[in-house]
What we know:
Blueprint: E1 4-8, E2 14-18, E3 30-31, E4 42-43, E5 52-57, H1 63-80, E6 84-90, H2 93-101, E7 107-109, H3 112-121, E8 124-131, E9 137-138, E10 140-145, E11 160-163, H4 169-181, H5 186-189, E12 192-195, H6 199-207, E13 213-217, H7 218-226, E14 233-238, E15 242-243, E16 247-250, H8 255-266, H9 272-280, E17 285-287, H10 295-304
Parallel strand pairs: 2-6, 3-12, 5-6, 5-7, 11-12, 11-13
Antiparallel strand pairs: 1-2, 1-4, 7-16, 8-16, 8-17, 9-15, 10-13, 10-14
Helix pairs in contact: 1-9, 2-3, 4-10
Amino acid sequence: MLGFWIVNRPLGILLVVALVAPGCKRSRYEVVEVDPRERVPTANLPPSPRPVLRFGLAAMISPRETASDYATLARELGAAIGTGAELVHGKSYKEVNELLVAAQLDAAFLCTGGYLELAARTPVEVLAVPQVDGKTTYRSLIIVRDRSEARTLLDLRGRRFAFTDPLSLSGYLYPTSRLRAAGLAPESFFGKAELLGSHDRSIQAVRRDVVDAAAVDSLVFERLREAAQVPGLKILEQSPELGIPPIVAVASHPPEKRARYRAALLRLHERLSARAALSRIRIERFVAPPAGLYAGAEAIWRQARR
């Protein structure tokens, strides 16, 4: 039985954060809370008085940063298909995948690695993908402080390193695949490796000297850099361009509902409130996924899981 953390939102939107499901394996890395003030009180999930769209969000950045804009998108998507909406913000990428498999979500915004893991387990449909700066790709960035003498990831042996989540392509799988390709064991390469749960936490951990380096999502890093929230940091290296995190639904979900969700997502930017929220998170609009979008990401995913 999953537990939930809930924050009431205006206009009928709920921000719901799923707790760890019993039986999930613990990572070999230490989980560190950089800012424990982001926690919210626990409560029971109330029954919905009317049909709702339950829209999941992987914890790419922390709830404090995502609550308002993603709640707006969930609300607008629900309105576009004629229902209410709930935003379900997962505490980990795995939790969102499990909620999709258990049919407790109608659709979800996943990280790319989470999508590949889910697609390997069950048939899944990519409903739409975000377009950012005219592209449907992003990169993994290895970041350090400006004064670091490291030149590549391989110079970080024995250092303190921050990952985001074991299913994150940019925040875990890319650096892991890089080390494996160099014949190195990711499990023993770093002096201390930590899972921080979101890209913004990893970025701030480097800035505050909690760790020496981190692997993060380029979209999150650029958003924070534009807001002048990453002073003193530099990009050590970056991955090739990779397929951007998608919005998905499991194929067992009724096809007519998936078609409605897909059509609503592709026109979501036409709604005034949705367009404003999309702009704040640097998304221009949602589009159909180009053919072969995730081929490069899948190669990295397979290399990292060897």
